[in-house]
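Target protein
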Amino acid sequence: MAEPTPDSSSAQADVARLHAENQALRAELEDTNQGVLALYAELDIQAEQLRQASDLKSRFLSYMSHEFRTPLGSILSITSLLADEVDGPLSKEQQLQVAFISTATRELSDMVDDLLDLAKIEAGRLTISPAWFDMLDLFAALRGMFRPIVDAGTVDLIFEEPQGLPQMYTDDKKLAQILRNFISNALKFTTRGEVRVSAQLHGSNQVRFAVSDTGIGIAPELLGGLFEDFAQLDSPLQKRLRGTGLGLSLCKRFAALLGGEVGVESAPGVGSSFFVTLPLALAPEARTDEP
């Protein structure tokens, strides 16, 4: 029998070495795959825990918001009866106290509504109900809503009549909520001058609604975070005003649900212009029918 040559022995050694390296590599890959599977399993567990925590938070916010509404409604009803002097006349000081209670209750009610809307959005239960409507009717409703609270002596609230705009197909209640938030903020931060509400065609199939004011304005470095949750301006005027810091964040979320976007232009000491741009007709895939 022939003895193996040096070349064949070397080849066999190379084959054995490569086989051993291949086995080691396969074992390493197997360990890596097991590690990846374990990591995915851990991530799945953490994702489920986060989902449950988020669901619990949304349920808590929704439950507490509903529970707060009943006593707040009762307080508002009682203060309305007192203000109307149904049970007898009030002194000037009593009228001021009743007005203070009513204002504070409405502010708290607005905060509760913001929290409830946030809970619905995060839980995916916010309903979008589009319909055809005329922007003149929308502006008329907003004008009537703000007329009792505008101090015409120092600030003028002006609604520019929409010219040549067609009817719009979207959720007018969500749009009105966005504009109410913009107008309320503008009135809070405008001590003198005007707040102007307008609507114009933006391109061929969009409408841009803008609320411009002559208020304190906003520094450029603060504009980027205005529409984030719980964002509030760091200013002496802001410190005197109460709020959740959710209003603009909800505006951004509502606009996204309606297929649009929000934005702001501002300069300190000059004023601000908050705007929302929406399609003339809400796309079918954006509509929801959840209860």
The beta strands are 131-133, 155-159, 168-170, 193-201, 206-213, 261-267, 271-279. Residues 131-286 form a domain with the Heat Shock Protein 90 fold (CATH 3.30.565.10). DSSP finds six helices and seven strands in the chain.
